[in-house]
Amino acid sequence: MDNILSIKGISKSFGGKKVLDDLTFDVPRNSVYGFVGKNGAGKTTTMKLILGLYQPDKGEIYVNGKKVSFGQNETNKYIGYLPDVPEFYGYMKPTEYLKLCAEITDIPKNEVDSRIKEMLTLVGLDKDNKRIKGFSRGMKQRLGIAQALLSKPELLICDEPTSALDPMGRKEILDILKSASKETTVIFSTHILTDVERICDNVGILHEGKLAWQGTMEQVGAMSSNKSFQVEFDSNEDMKRAMEAIKSQNINISNLEMKDSNLENLFMEVIGHETA
Amino acid sequence: MMLANVDVQEYLPFLIPLIILQFVLLFIALRHILTHDTYKRGSRKLWLLITIVGMEFIGPILYFALGKEDE
Amino acid sequence: MRQLKAFIKKEWMEQFRTNKLLIIMIVSVMMGIMAPAVAKLTPVLFETMADTLAEQGIAGIEVGDVTALTSWQQFYKNISMLVIVFVIMYSGSYTTEYQRGTLINIVTKGMSRTKILVSKLLVQLVVWTMAYVVNFVTTYVYTEYYWDNSEVKNCIFAGVMVYIFGIWVIGLMTLASSIGDTNMSVLLITGGVVAVCYILSIVPDVAEYMPTKLLGAVELLNGAVDVETYAKATIVVVMTYLMTIIGSVLCFNKKRI
Lengths: 276, 71, 257
Description:
The complex is a heterotrimer of chains A (276), B (71) and C (257). Chain A has 276 residues and is of the alpha/beta class.
């Protein structure tokens, strides 16, 4: 069995509006799976279904080969979950909160303290043992990763872990996730495509409740060979002339990049350019 | 109001603790209001006013029930 | 067992660190003192106002002798206030967690929802017991100091009736919390049910069965009624309490948090 997660024909509606429509996909073990989609595409709904927080209208979900059932949490012991905006009890300190988590997930008593210390060091909060009330967004996000990884889950699910953060904070979180992926499978939803390109090896694109495309990052790379979006000018001359023109207008160019975001092109293609 | 003929001594056993407790409650509420910048509803001025006007315990209770931010 | 203990510990820590316990205890002591204080001060107030009243043509208001009974009557007049303060302070126990999403982390870690409910219920029961006992004992001690508690009949029994009513209200609040999403809805549901009980009590035959009957235990003090009169209402309270708890567990298990 090499799929840690199997989603089979899941449908879910909220108040007549179909959010997920016969969604099917698998996540292979030990991968970093980027779950991409526009805001409101159903990413959070999918994650909450995996966690048994919502009841699907149709279909089944298997985590580590075991079926997920609504309201129960048998399968949640394999999962570490980082909500989009993790919230904690403000009157607790990080160590106290992680201790609560450790006791709930039944981590052996003699390992609790060392595990908490290890996690806080991993996310860089080992020097911030003050009440969570005064934490910044980035610190809460890091504590969120610490609590999600505390029980050494086989599957780590992160809901938009970077979208609320500044570029520096994003990089830190991505680095932590990358290092976490050595020991666990990571599913991570986002609408920031560069984040996916930075750490993922598998990608699924969610659009209108269905998986519009799925594949590995290598396949994404291979698709770039058709170069359909790359040519903007008829010739290099034209491009140079355009550059000259810009220059002659005294327009400063502080940064020039060869646009080569393959995933972005693919994304636009599968969702049909609506956003453009 | 003439209370001159009243033997105050007799009332001290409850007056003293009542006054002390009232001020303890007032102090906790005021300290909380002044050390927090955001409230569930209302503003700092409003809560200071309510707490001081209703200081015989209704004010502080209203603040803790309705104004204090959740943690 | 470890999960339950951990969550009770969390709830208990919350009582201290958010000042909830301290505030409710101060209020109970204050209200416990207030009952005998008002009883003691009433004749003084009447005395000082006697002249004014006489001028307005109101005369002959007899201020009866102040006794232990007067003090306890004040206690029962004020006790609904303690229940209300308690309900207001704990109406957000669940809903705050729904709104902030703090339970999501806990539940997705494999914590059983029933244990969350049981922890919250236990801690609230302990706090209510502490608050009520402190309130009752304060009034008892003062009344003993100024008068004599032995003049009052069924003193402890009447106290227990109101205590049970408080437990019943906590059950109601738990059910409301497993249905509603905001603390306002919890207050409305809890207050609404109590109000309906009061309205139904207009019919004397029905009043015998209403949980709110227990709040009127003051009538036991002068021996006007027997303790047996409370049997029916007590049975109803126990039965409906069990039903609300079972209902709460069922609703909470399917609650979208």
